[in-house]
Write a structure and sequence with these properties.
This is Opacity protein-like surface antigen. It comes from Mesonia maritima. Keywords: Signal. By secondary structure, the chain is mainly β. The chain has one domain: Beta Barrel (Porin), CATH 2.40.160. It is built from 1 helix and 9 strands, in the order H-E-E-E-E-E-E-E-E-E. The chain has an 8-stranded antiparallel β-barrel with strand order 1-2-3-4-5-7-8-9. Strand 1 and strand 2 form a beta hairpin. The two termini are 27 Å apart.
Length: 208
């Protein structure tokens, strides 16, 4: 999976640099990162709590017209849910929580429409590759990890969001991702549960 992430990241960066050599005003590449609030949704999911994690990765913007661009990205995205929340005073200090961790390399390809100035809306398909799946009763420590093999390796989803991009290249954004793929594999024990990923993201980034 590390090779997959490196290959995808180089592809995004290579696409940007190849076009930038011809016309630096056409294509931009950058980095981004932010916070995830992830959970599961569907007819067969019980009362789970949102897991707080992060996302980080690479982004490129390929303008088609003055107000329309295509934006591919390669991101690490920490997802899943909290099985039990035992510390409510500080959501970042969650070492007493029990987390179900489903971590992905996500590759969205978004249509990006500028409505005015730097404000834009985004939407498009996203494919996720599962790279980590475990139950963790000590999320801020290396101990307490129990590997599981219940989730599907690939997750198809829809990403939608809004963004404001400043003239100096910095941008801020908010996004929601809904998974179309059922998260868990069909089994004799659990059947074929109707459970999907649901992730809210907020973050910042910079285009070079």
């Amino acid at each position: 999976m590390k090779k997959l992430m490196l290959t995808a990241a180089l592809a995004v960066l290579g696409l940007g640099s190849a076009n930038a050599q011809a016309d630096s005003d056409l294509v931009q590449v950058g980095v981004k990162g932010g916070i995830n609030f992830s959970n599961l949704t569907g007819d067969d999911i019980g009362d789970t709590k949102s897991r707080t994690s992060f996302n980080a990765g690479f982004v490129a913007e390929l303008p088609i017209t003055e107000r329309f661009s295509i934006q591919p990205e390669v991101l690490y995205s920490g997802q899943g849910f909290d099985i039990e929340q035992r510390d409510q005073e500080n959501f970042l200090d969650n070492d007493d929580n029990i987390e179900a961790q489903l971590d992905y390399i996500q590759i969205p390809v978004l249509a990006k429409i500028y409505l005015f100035d730097g404000f834009n809306i985004q939407a498009g398909p996203q494919i996720g590759f599962l790279i980590n799946e475990e139950i963790d009763n000590a999320p801020l420590d290396d101990s307490g990890d129990t590997d599981t093999d219940l989730a599907e390796d690939i997750d198809f989803s829809l990403a939608t969001g809004v963004e404001y991009k400043f003239d100096n290249g910095f941008f801020i954004q908010a996004r929601y991702n809904y998974g179309f793929t059922k998260v868990f594999k069909e089994s004799d024990l659990f059947g074929d549960p109707d459970i999907h990923n649901s992730v809210f993201q907020a973050g910042i980034g910079f285009m070079f």
